[in-house]
Amino acid sequence: MPVGSRENIAELWLQRALRAYPSQSAEFLAAERDPFRNPAGSTIRRGLGILLDELLGGMDRGRLAEALDSIVQIRAVQGLEPSQALEFLFQLKEILRSLVDGPEREKLESRIDQLALMAFDLYLKYRERIYQAKANEARRRLFVLERRQERGDI
Fold first, then answer.
1. Is the pLDDT of residue 14 over 90?
2. b/e per residue 63-81 (b: at least 16 CB within 10 A)
3. What pLDDT score does 3 carry?
């Protein structure tokens, strides 16, 4: 891979990952660099950079898990379908295919597949938490309604 292309790959990957969002949102997520004004965009940008560094380097599982967790959590909470939420990993394969050949490409694609499996587990974990929170809220509302009914408030 040519020197300096890491930044180009990271930027291209970010642009493709943001395709899952409406165009105006994607533009904001890509353009606004202030992490206080754009925490989701900042987190996605930083996480993709870490994932790319580890895919091209040592595959530190702790760093991979942390970066992947932050991105997948955002995408799960935003209600993206699983295919949309995790598509960003497979988009990197497309980008790398034009830059890397032979055994190195196979190694990178295998690593991306490993990340996809980790990401799927994380996505399900966060979706389960969301559904659990909604179920807890429904139970709480029902309890309050029953209490009000017992007191004759309704």
1. yes
2. ebeebbbbbbbbbbeeebe
3. 41
Instruction: Say what the pLDDT of residue 147 is.
Output: 84
Residue 45's nearest CA partner among 67, 65, 23 is 67
Q: Which helix (H) or strand (E) element contains residue 59?
A: none
Q: Which has the closest alpha carbon to 44: 62, 27, 67? A: 67
Backbone angles phi, psi at 125, to 5 degrees: -60, -45
Listed in sequence order, the DSSP H helices in 18-101 are 23-31, 39-56, 61-77, 82-97
Cβ atoms within 10 A of the Cβ of 61, count? 11
> Where do the domains of the chain lie?
5-125
Question: DSSP 3-state assignment of 96?
Answer: helix
User: In the structure encoding, which two tokens stand for residue 137, read together?
Assistant: 């809220």
Handedness of CA 33, 112, 75, 64 (dihedral sign): negative
